[in-house]
Amino acid sequence: MTIVVELRPSERVIIDTATLDAVFKTLGHRGAESHVIETVEAISDLLAEVDAMVRADNLAGIPDLAQRVSRLSLEIGLTSLARVSRDMGISAREGDIVAYRAIWERLVRIGDRSLALVWEVPGLSM
């Protein structure tokens, strides 16, 4: 008898709504919406750059990009994305390819869900 197990990674996405609320209080509704849109676009662009480096097996530039993704994520309350980005940068800096590839896959899952969920936060009307 052969047993086949399908693994489906499930990631918990954490959005710090207090941080997002602070952005809205500081910038006002329109300013906050604009800031969140610009930040999400910047994160997406940085992750595309990371993806290109991953495909080229070039880990050297990834730690700096990962730090920028982490910082931008924290600005708008994307806590889990910030943490995984930080981990990705650490694994790339240490040259741990196995850990790096696993963290990259995790980052893709969390990144997709985080960027989608931020639009569902009450107060955003994008």
Structural commentary:
It is globular and about 60 Å long. The N and C termini lie far apart (52 Å). The protein is built from 4 helices and no strands. The mean pLDDT is 86. 71% of the residues lie in helices and 0% in strands. The chain is mostly helical and 126 residues long.
Blueprint of the fold:
Layout: H1 17-55, H2 62-75, H3 79-94, H4 97-117
Shape: globular
Q: How far is the N terminus from the C terminus?
A: 52 Å
What is the string of helix and strand elements?
Answer: HHHH
Helix-residue proportion: over 70%
Task: Tally the beta strands.
Answer: 0
Largest sheet: none
Radius of gyration: 16 Å
Average pLDDT for all residues: 86
Q: How many individual helices?
A: 4
What class, by secondary structure content?
mainly alpha
Strand content: under 5%
- Low-pLDDT parts are none
